[in-house]
Amino acid sequence: QVQLVESGGGLVQAGGSLRLSCAASGRTFGNYGMGWFRQTPGKEREFVAAISWIGGSTDYADSVKGRFTISRDNAKNTVYLQMNSLKAEDTAVYYCAAALYSSIRTRSAGPDYWGQGTQVTVSS
Of 31, 46, 59, 65, which has the highest C-beta tally within 10 A? Predict the structure, then answer.
């Protein structure tokens, strides 16, 4: 089974930046769609950003477009989320996700794999 491990979360002041990392291990087959969701207690889990493992095409939620940048390092099996101009409403647990041969955003069954999450807290 593929395992995803997030890191880089923490406490940051509003307007600051954080970079999240997600390292994938285990068996992989061809192309993956990878990216990030986030969830605040009492709220629905929401899509944040996605990237194609082979082509590198990206997709962002409107709420983070222009502030967050997703990237990947295929050699390291790692995807990153650079978060700039952070706002209090960005506070959430951020989950890395992966979907085999599809987008984590559009796959009807949802992602195949999930990380355990990393807490991001933005103070206002």
Answer: 59
**Cα first-last separation, the chain:** 39
Q: Evaluate if residue 110 carries a pLDDT over 70.
A: yes
* Strands 46-52 and 58-60, bridge-based pairing: antiparallel
* C-alpha 43: how far from chain center: 17
Alpha helices in the chain (DSSP H): none
The size of the chain, in residues, is 124
DSSP state of 88: G
In eight-state DSSP terms, residue 105 is T
Whole-number pLDDT of residue 114: 96
Range 47-52, long-range pairs (CB < 8 A, 24+ positions) = 47/104, 47/105, 48/81, 48/94, 49/81, 50/103, 50/104, 50/105, 51/79, 52/103
**What is the pLDDT of the chain when averaged over all its residues?**
93
Closest CA to 82 of 100, 64, 109, 97: 64
